[in-house]
Structures are given as structure tokens and as C-alpha cells.
Amino acid sequence: MSLAKEISEIVKGRIKFNEPLSEHTSLRIGGPADYWVEPKDLEDLRAVLQFASTKRLPWKVLGEGTNILARDRGFPGLIISLRGDSFQKLEFNEDTSYECCKRRVVAGAAVLLSKLMSEAAERGLGGLEFAVGIPGTVGGALVMNAGAQSASVGDVTHSVKVLNTSNGVSLLKKDALRFGYRRSNLGKEEVVLEVEMKLKKKDKNEIDNLIKDYLSKRREAQPLDQPSAGCIFKNPSDVSAGELIDKANLKGRRIGDAQISTKHANFIINRGEAKAEEVISLVETVREEVLRKMGIRLEPEIEIIGE
Ligand SMILES: Cc1cc2nc3c(=O)[nH]c(=O)nc-3n(C[C@H](O)[C@H](O)[C@H](O)COP(=O)(O)OP(=O)(O)OC[C@H]3O[C@@H](n4cnc5c(N)ncnc54)[C@H](O)[C@@H]3O)c2cc1C
């Protein structure tokens, strides 16, 4: 029996074959994934991982693909998307006797970070205002420890439920979680299922004003009307990567349809038909020139997947 037929018999959720990753990444770049799977529920997800392990197929969970550069020849294995209803839980605990001034929120991995932030804001719960304008899912945000304005998702995270490699569900409490600058100890081998956060009661006007302020700064500084994956490089410890790229006179530099944004030097935009190889060449050019001119080695923030 072909692998395609076998997987179709095992998985209850949606399966697509040769699914173009350009349709699932914010850069709009990427060749086909052999298998695109949307498990229906936890049991289905277990079956998918078991299948991948038995057949020795590489697999990768994709959130909204907003921090991903998918290579042109695609992904030779299974891309797992948790967009099914089972991973969309969003529960606010209104219990006022909970830890002083704090409220518990539980969010599934596929919930959009922006939705979690705005629903929290509506309830007068602060702590996630920094997340306004960060695209992607809660799962992706936890793995990347997404952040802005000197705050990040890890700051408000209390525990994370994961499906581990032996297909068991574990609850990782705060002391088992490691969050650093755009990194965490999550997602390497396990699938993030849901998070429990603690948010603080706060004046709603104060929350709304912060959100407005952060959003307008973002709109002013970032090329939000063009496909990108956000910042390409991590900021070195005492200077912003954008500043270095700008000083190296690289704003506007173009290889094919991949271009360093003229608005924000740490963004690479896809002007239409950019290939992953062009983005990678541009990334290498920036690294070489910044190292040569400033003596600083830039580290990518985006993740490259595929062949
Ligand atoms: C316009 C723009 C602005 C941005 N601004 C910011 C910003 O201010 N700050 C910031 O930190 N980032 C920013 N980003 C980058 C990106 O939005 C974040 O990193 C985001 O958190 C990624 O979420 P995602 O769902 O798209 O994850 P993806 O890009 O799909 O995946 C990211 C990683 O998480 C893993 N992953 C996703 N879900 C799961 C899961 N359930 N279980 C296991 N692993 C999982 C993936 O395998 C991958 O390794 C920006 C991007 C864009 C396009």
C-alpha cells in the first residue's frame, strides 16, 4: 500500500498531498510538503506522530508560518497543522479568589496570539499588550518566546501542556520551562498543546492606550503591507540588527524578488515571486557585509525548513 493511502486510512482529520508551503507562510515562499495533516484531536495527533515514527518520516508542526522560510524544494515529510477545533480552546477563569489580582487563562496551541491578547484586553487583563501586531499562534509564540517592548510570552506563562516523543501528555510547570531571547526549550521534539498564563487585572483604558501606542509604532516602522517573516536577525546584545544593516548601507538591496525593506532594515520582503534561495543569499550577504564592516556576527531569528 502506498504511504499516501496508509496515512489516509489512519488520520481522521484533513490530509493534503504536495501542499505548497508558500500558501502557509507569511513570506509566501516554499515548495510542497509531501503530506499536510490537520489532526482532528489529540488521539489523531498521536496517530500521526506514531505513523511518522514508524515510517521514519520527518515532521514539523507549523503554526501560521510567520517565522518560517520554507525552501523551494519543499518539505520531505509531514507538516502538522493544529488548526482543528480541538486545539482552539480559550478559557478565562473569572475566579476572583485566585492569586491576588491575577486571572488564569488557558489557550490552545492554535489560538491566534492576537485573539488571546484582545480577548484578555476586553476583560481588563493586562500583561499581553506587547503582543499586539505579532502574528501567529500561541504554539509558535511559546516556541519562539515571541516578544516586543522588552516583554515576551514567557513572562506570563505559568505552565505548558505538551505531547512528548513517547506520545504521552506532560504538564511542564514554570520550573521546567526555559525562555530566552526568541528561544525556549519547547517544540524541539514535543508538540505544544496548550498554555496556562497568569494575567493581571488592570485598568482597561490603560491597556487600550498601550495597545494603541504599540500598534502605531509598529505601523510606522514596519512594512506591514508586504509579505515578510518579521525580523530576520536577532538583535545583538547592545544594538539593533536593523541599525547595523542600515549603517552597512544595505536597505533596499535586492536579489531577485527578495529585498531588504527600505522601511525597516531587519525585514526581508517578497516583492512577488521571491524564491527561498534568493532570501537565503540575501541573508548571507547581510551577514557577510555586517561582519566585514562592523565586526558583528548576526544570528538569524527566522527558521529555515525543508530541502
Ligand atoms: C509582520 C511580522 C511581525 C512580527 N513581529 C514579531 C515581534 O514583534 N516579535 C516576535 O517575537 N516575533 C515577531 N514576528 C515573528 C513571528 O510572528 C513569531 O515568531 C510568532 O510567534 C510565530 O508564530 P507562528 O504560529 O507563525 O509559528 P511558526 O512560524 O509557524 O513556527 C515557529 C516555530 O514554532 C514551532 N511551532 C509552532 N507551533 C507549534 C506547536 N504547537 N508545537 C510545537 N512547535 C510549534 C514551529 O515548528 C517553528 O519551529 C513577526 C512576524 C511578522 C510576519
Features:
alpha+beta, Uridine Diphospho-n-acetylenolpyruvylglucosamine Reductase, domain 2, Uridine Diphospho-n-acetylenolpyruvylglucosamine Reductase, domain 3, Uridine Diphospho-n-acetylenolpyruvylglucosamine Reductase, domain 1, six-stranded antiparallel sheet, four-stranded mixed sheet, globular, binds flavin-adenine dinucleotide
Please explain how this structure is put together.
The protein has 307 residues and is an alpha+beta fold. It folds into three domains: 83 residues, 2-Layer Sandwich (Uridine Diphospho-n-acetylenolpyruvylglucosamine Reductase, domain 2), CATH 3.30.43.10; 133 residues, Uridine Diphospho-n-acetylenolpyruvylglucosamine Reductase, domain 3; 83 residues, Alpha-Beta Complex (Uridine Diphospho-n-acetylenolpyruvylglucosamine Reductase, domain 1), CATH 3.90.78. It contains eight helices and 19 strands. Strands 6, 7, 8, 11, 12 and 15 form a six-stranded antiparallel beta sheet that branches. It has a four-stranded mixed beta sheet with strand order 1-2-5-3, with helices on one face. Strands 16-17-18 form a three-stranded antiparallel beta sheet. The chain is globular. The two termini are 26 Å apart. The mean pLDDT is 96. Bound molecules: flavin-adenine dinucleotide (FAD). Flavin-adenine dinucleotide binds next to strand 3, helix 4, strand 9 and strand 15.
